[in-house]
């Protein structure tokens, strides 16, 4: 029975193919006014309204689907672009940070080449929460050879001294701290005084006689008195000179080139009494 059904199907298929060939032959041979062309036009006239209705119903859904698909695609692209932007932005930050670090370290290396004493490099890792204290924490301690009272410098000049020390870190009291006192010397006049910090972070040179010839722009260096700071380290320059009638000494403000609010890398002088040439900076 299956064989009979297969033969019938094959016969039907052959008949349909032959009929199609006949109709196609007649269609291409007749003119546009022929019966087959008119039948095609009539069919289109019947089908077209149905197609328009179906299209009108389906079109909004089709557009919505395309819109949602495009949104999903754009959202995925935006996520990828956001990740790429974040990666490129971080690369730029890393490159700029590395460049800035290299410049700082290069300046310290150049300073160290000129200095005839031993130093230990350290990085600032902390600051006090209070604005009344002018101190920083560095990541070098007794384990690195750092001891209490040792001077701390950068290429722009004197920073301060070690005030507290532990095996792996130390607290540096900055020269601008109001509790700080540094023996200082006016390089041109050779007059000695004491450099004091203040609450507002300004530097003042005290105990300079009214007869002093110190003037704005003169270089101030460490005097070496007191045995803490070696003689000759650059501190800053005279910013202003006043002579109050009620005072016994001149009031001299000193400008340091060190940006104490942006300290990152420093050197700790570990020699006890190192020789040094004046104005080293």
Structural account:
- With 281 residues, the protein is of the alpha+beta class.
- The protein folds into 2 domains: 84 residues; 151 residues, Rod shape-determining protein MreC, domain 2 (Thrombin, subunit H), CATH 2.40.10.350.
- It contains 2 helices and 12 strands.
- The strands form 2 sheets. Strands 1-2-5-4-3-12 form a 6-stranded antiparallel beta barrel. A 6-stranded antiparallel beta barrel has the order 6-7-8-11-10-9.
- A hairpin with a 2-residue loop joins strand 3 and strand 4.
- 23% of the residues are buried.
- The model has no long low-confidence stretch (mean pLDDT 78).
List keywords for this structure.
281 residues; alpha+beta; Thrombin, subunit H; 2 domains; six-stranded antiparallel β-barrel; six-stranded antiparallel beta barrel; 2 helices; 38% helix; rod-shaped
Compact summary:
Helix content is about 40%, strand content about 25%.
Low-confidence stretches: none
CATH topology of the largest domain: Thrombin, subunit H
Quick one: biggest sheet?
A: 6 strands, antiparallel, barrel
Spatial order of the strands forming the largest sheet: 1-2-5-4-3-12
* Distance between the first and last residues' Cα: 111 Å
Number of distinct beta strands:
12
User: Which class of secondary structure composition applies to the elements?
Assistant: alpha+beta
Gyration radius, in Å:
45 Å
Query: What integer is the average pLDDT?
Result: 78
Strand content: 25-35%
The CATH fourth-level homologous superfamily of the largest domain: Rod shape-determining protein MreC, domain 2
Order of helices and strands: HHEEEEEEEEEEEE
């Amino acid at each position: 029975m299956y064989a009979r059904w297969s033969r019938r199907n094959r016969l039907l298929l052959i008949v349909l193919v032959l009929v199609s060939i006949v109709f196609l032959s007649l269609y291409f041979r007749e003119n546009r006014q022929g019966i087959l062309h008119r039948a095609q036009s009539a069919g289109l006239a019947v089908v077209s309204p149905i197609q328009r209705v179906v299209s009108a119903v389906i079109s909004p859904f089709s557009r919505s689907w395309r819109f949602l698909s495009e949104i999903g695609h754009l959202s995925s692209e935006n996520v990828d672009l956001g990740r790429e932007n974040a990666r490129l932005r971080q690369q730029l930050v890393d490159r700029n940070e590395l460049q800035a670090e290299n410049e700082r370290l290069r300046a310290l290396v150049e300073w160290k080449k000129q200095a005839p004493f031993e130093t230990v490099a350290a990085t600032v890792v902390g600051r006090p929460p209070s604005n009344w204290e002018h101190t920083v924490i560095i990541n070098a301690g007794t384990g690195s050879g750092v001891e209490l009272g040792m001077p701390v410098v950068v290429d722009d000049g004197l920073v301060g001294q070690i005030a507290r020390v532990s095996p792996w870190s130390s607290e540096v009291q900055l020269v601008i701290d109001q509790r700080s006192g540094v023996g200082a010397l006016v390089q041109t006049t050779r007059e000695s005084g004491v450099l004091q910090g203040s609450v507002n972070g300004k530097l003042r040179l005290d105990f300079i006689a009214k007869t002093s010839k110190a003037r704005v722009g003169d270089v101030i260096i460490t005097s070496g008195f007191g045995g803490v700071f070696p003689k000759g380290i650059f501190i800053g320059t005279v910013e202003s000179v006043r002579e109050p009638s009620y005072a016994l000494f001149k009031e001299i403000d000193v400008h340091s080139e060190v940006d104490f609010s942006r300290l990152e890398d420093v050197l700790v002088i570990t020699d006890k009494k190192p020789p040094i040439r004046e104005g080293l900076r």
